[in-house]
Amino acid sequence: MPVTIAQIQKWKQQKKTIAALTASDYAIAKLLDRAGVDLILVGDSLAMVTLGYKNTLPVTLDDMIRHAQAVGRGVENALLIVDLPFLSYQVSPEEALRSAGRIFKETEAKGIKLEGGYPEMVSTIRKIIQAGMPVMGHVGLTPQSVHQIGYRVQGKLPKAANEILDQAKALVDAGIFALLLENIPTDLATKITELIPVPTIGIGAGKGCDGQILVTHDVLGLSDWQPSFARKYVDLQAVITDAVQQYCQDIRENVID
């Protein structure tokens, strides 16, 4: 049965952990869905792992929609969420509404995710939700702010931790259905998880969250670099390289008809 937003919210009360991964193409999405992943995120990380950019900033709304369409064709059961990319929602609430609306109209997404918990963003999120579009929040390390905050752990000092906690509470008040906590201390993520009524999904935030997400390319060993918190379950770079080298050798030696 397809996973719903109401279902993952109920899982928080039942202490059932949410397993989430990213996808950006049909083939991988189909495999993740068949393997039983609860939530699939078409993340703007596809800018790096799929399109070859150095960070998430260059990816466009059209890029996100095209990849979300492909992922949607491979998903039958997982809850499909799509990132709003950089500058598709920060300029004005009206533009954010249009961007979110395009994702819901043109893809199979059941929700969107956007970064930040400062007051202006909370107001924008509230407007999107009031228009009938579910939103997942995202605080801690927000990759679209890479040139401002880098890829460092966020919330290590008390003041910064309190700011992230306040942002989480404000986003819940705005109506988010879940909250992604990225690269923050375990004790802070655990505290937020215990204090807010919606599911938290962590990435580099420790075991205290209601769920976990990783970039699938990191899990499968397809990334040239991956963060220290991302466990590599298989080295597909080596597997694929060996297979292709064997293929090339067979062709050159006329082994294959």
Would you write up a description of this structure?
- This protein has 257 residues and is of the alpha/beta class.
- It has a single domain (5-220), classed as Alpha-Beta Barrel (TIM Barrel).
- Helices cover 45% and strands 14% of the residues.
- The chain contains eleven helices and eight strands.
- It has an eight-stranded parallel β-barrel, surrounded by seven helices.
- α2 links the parallel β1 (18-22) and β2.
- α6 (119-130) packs parallel to α8.
- The radius of gyration is 19 Å and the shape is globular.
- The mean pLDDT is 97.
**Assembly state:** single chain
Task: Name the CATH superfamily assignment.
Answer: Phosphoenolpyruvate-binding domains
In CATH's first tier, which class applies? Alpha Beta
Residue-averaged pLDDT: 97
Strand order across the biggest sheet?
Answer: 1-2-3-4-5-6-7-8
**In whole angstroms, how far apart are the ends?**
44 Å
Main sheet specs: 8 strands, parallel, barrel
Return Rg in Å: 19 Å
H/E order of the elements?
A: HEHEHHEHEHEHHEHEEHH
- Helix coverage percent: 40-55%
Tag the structure with descriptive keywords.
single chain, alpha/beta, eight-stranded parallel β-barrel, 11 helices, 8 strands
Write the layout of secondary structure elements.
Layout: H1 5-14, E1 18-22, H2 26-35, E2 39-42, H3 46-49, H4 61-74, E3 79-83, H5 93-106, E4 111-113, H6 119-130, E5 135-140, H7 146-149, H8 158-174, E6 178-182, H9 186-195, E7 200-203, E8 211-214, H10 216-219, H11 236-252
Helix pairs in contact: 2-4, 4-5, 5-6, 6-8, 8-9
